[in-house]
Design goal:
Four Helix Bundle (Hemerythrin (Met), subunit A); 2 domains; 7 helices; 163 residues; 49% helix; mainly alpha
Amino acid sequence: RLLITSETAPMIFQTYAEVEFMLAEANVRWGLAGDAETHYNNGVTAAMKQLSLYGDAGIIADADIADYLAANPYDSANALEQINTQYWAATFLNEYESISNWRRTGFPALTPVNYPGNVTNGTIPRRLTYSESEQSNNPDNYAAVIAAQGPDVLTTRVWWDVE
């Protein structure tokens, strides 16, 4: 069993890989930031290399990275899905970032699971609920927010999370 973790591993808030994927997306959407394929390849490479921060088990050889890119080349016809699926994989150790990007883009396509006792009835949560202390200590603003955004439940979309 291999572990990709270390007690001394850093907590990284934004990586070079994330920036490269955002630049690739900016190029696809708006023609900005150079060449989307180059940024995509840089992002995949950086995401794989950064796993070495979590111990020897996380080291991916350059040849393996090259093989992966050759087997999964940039595809301009499916660029947004491909870029954001790689973004998801690159941010799996920062679940708040991966789920936020999924809410923003809809990629990767996730399959909800409806297990017994699931409070969302098989719908993937879209946000966190407000705490009881927020509700009781700030009732006027809490009521205003709920009136504007909708119910205080896990499946209510935040203002920028549109279909």
